[in-house]
Amino acid sequence: MKWIVGVSVVAALVFAVATATIPAQTIVPDQTVIKLFPAETQGVAFVDLASLRSTPLGVEIMTQGAPLTPQVPKLQDFVAATGFNFRDDVDRVTIGRLDARRAIFVIQARFDQFKVERYLADHVTRLDTYMGRTIYEDRDHDFGVAFIDGLVIAGYTDAVKKAVEQASLPASSIALRSDLMAAIRSFEAGSQVWAAGEFHFEELPVAQLPPQAAGAGPIFEMLKTLQGGTYQMRVDTNIHARAVANFTSAENAKTLSDLSRGVIALVKTQVAAQNPDLLHALDGLQVSYSGTQMVVNIDEPGDLVKKFRQLRQSRGLRRFRG
To answer: How many domains does the structure of the chain reveal?
Structure first.
C-alpha cells in the first residue's frame, strides 16, 4: 500500500511540473488582415462576431440588442438593394487606428460583391482606381471603400489607399510596430474581442467632463499620464475580460489602482444587504497594478449578466411607456 501512495505522489508531482511548463495558448492573428495596416498604425481592435454568435451568452446579448438598420435609413436602403444583413452576415471586424482622425475597417463577411459594388457605384461621388484597385469614394465625408481578396476595406480614403499599398506587398510583409504585434500575440486564445495600442486621456469621452465640478482634478491629472493599453474578452457561458492601462508613472498606476479598489470596497459595503446581485458582480472585478500598469480582471457569471441586461431593458421600457 505504501508503494502505491508513493508512486501516486511522484506521478502527481511529475504531472504538475509538466503542466506548469506548458505556456498558455495565445491568439494567432490573421496575417492576411494584419498586413493591410501601415507602419503608422497606433492601435488595432478586433471583434469576432461569428464566434460570439456561437456562444450561448453571445447569442443572448446579440438577440436582445436593438436592430441596427431601422435606426439608419441609408442602411435600410443598402440592405434592401443588396440583401446584406449586418448582424448575421458580418463575421469579423478588425480596426486599425492610424491617428485620432483616421482609421481603417477590415470587414470579413458573407455578401454578394456584385450587388454591393453596384450599390456603391450608384451612391458614391467618385470612382477612383488606385494601384489597380477600385475605390468607391464619398468625397463629402472623406470616406472610401475597396475590396481586396474578399475583404471589405473601409475608412478615410487615404487610409484605404494605404491598405491597398500594403496589399501589394509580399504576404510576409507585416508593417505593424513590433511592440504592437507582441501585444496582439499575447492575448488569450479564444478571445472574441481584443484591442491594443496607443491612446491618451484627452481622446476619451471622460476627458470632456469638468473635473473641478466633481472634485476629480487630481485624478484627471494622473489620468493624463495614460499612454495606451490592451483589452481582451472571452465569452462562453460567462464573461472573462482583462484590461491593462499603461501609464508613464508607476506611482500613478499604483494610486489609481488603490483608489479603484477603495471605491469597489465602499460600494460593496453600501449594497451588501439590499442588492446581493450587485455585490456578486463586484466580486468578479479585481484591480491590481504592476510597475507602470494598472490591471483590471473581470469574471462575471453569464446568468448575472443576463439578469442585469433584462433589468436595464425593463427600466428602459417603463421610461418609454411613461
So the answer is: 2
Residue 193 lies in a domain: no
What integer is the mean pLDDT of 129-147? Answer: 91
CA torsion 175-180-185-191 (nearest 10°) is -110
- Could you give the CA distance from residue 64 to residue 52 in angstroms, rounded to a whole number? 14
* 176-178-183-185 Cα dihedral, nearest 10 degrees: 80
Confirm whether 143 is domain-assigned.
yes
Q: Give a yes or no: residue 9 inside a domain.
A: no
| pTM (2 d.p.) | 0.82
Please check whether residue 22 lies inside any domain of the structure.
no
CA angle at residue 66 from 60 to 72, to 5 degrees?
A: 145
Same domain flag for 254 and 286: yes
Question: How far, in Å, CA of 231 to CA of 187, rounded?
Answer: 9
List the beta strands (DSSP E) in the chain.
43-48, 90-97, 103-109, 126-130, 133-138, 143-148, 151-156, 193-198, 226-235, 238-247, 285-290, 293-301
